Amino acid sequence: MSAATPIVTTVQNRLPNPWPVARTGHRWLQRARRHSVMVDEHRIVWLERGRRQSHKPSVVLLHGLAAMKENWSAWLPLFTKDQHVVAVDIPGFGESDYRVGASYRYRDQAERMVQWLGAAGLGQVHLVGSSMGAAVATLMAGRMGERAVSLTVMNSAGIPAHERVDLNRPPVFDSSILIPEDWSGVYRMFNNVGSGKPTLSGMAMTGLLGVDLLRRAGQNRHVFSDMVADPYAPTTALTKDMAPLLVIWGDRDQITPPSCVDFYRKTTPHAEVHMMRGIGHLPMLENPRRSFGILRDFIGRHSSR
Fold first, then answer.
1. Where in this chain does the record put each AB hydrolase-1 domain (predicted)?
2. Phi, psi (degrees; rounded to nearest 5) at 177
3. What pLDDT does 303 receive?
4. How many CB atoms lie within 10 A of CB 287?
5. pLDDT in tens, 9-21
């Protein structure tokens, strides 16, 4: 899809953006505490619930492309009060900084996020990622050793869909699905990240987040182009002796094919794999209680390394 015309861009910039106000209201409703710290010339912002406990790892939630920490809003209330949980805006998204000259390849983002864990004072953690965030979390786990108590990936980016994929060539993908440049694209995005069918929630999210997404189209294109420059980087961190691994996937995913789970079954036979029927690209939003229950049971069995 071609870039928006100057006239359209001007109109979009003049439209009121309801998301910042809604984001503040969301934080209060979630009873979450907001924090920020500078890492690699990026201010990184995160939400926190619960209290840190020396004997219990924190849970760290990483969102996907063109998304933000609030993507975990349906999960946050489901954690028990004694579980320390952190939902972070990955650099380039949400309230965290974006830099025109920075690199946002998976490996660079993973390095920033490992530095952020240290700056935020987090020790052992359960890493949980969705889509792009799952790819970043995978590389983080590969760098962190025993500090990564477990890794959970949901519909991860950066995983080949079949054995014939050339890992040295970028995949063919319609980026406009995730990087809309007009209102029809926004509506298309919010339906395709689910099961692909139009929904009332898709219409609501179009109104709530549409202006913000359209204004961020340029930086989202930048991040996406950096990701596909080294598209399968996460596969290098998937080994038979890595941290306990949970794989959750929606069988109706329109973005990352469900066949990607075959790569995990072959490369990481110790992985616990859950294919969720009737679910698309975002299990934590489409069926929060069911997907959270899978995570809760998994981390309950892996409280330390």
1. 59-290
2. -65, -40
3. 81
4. 18
5. 454 556 777 767 7
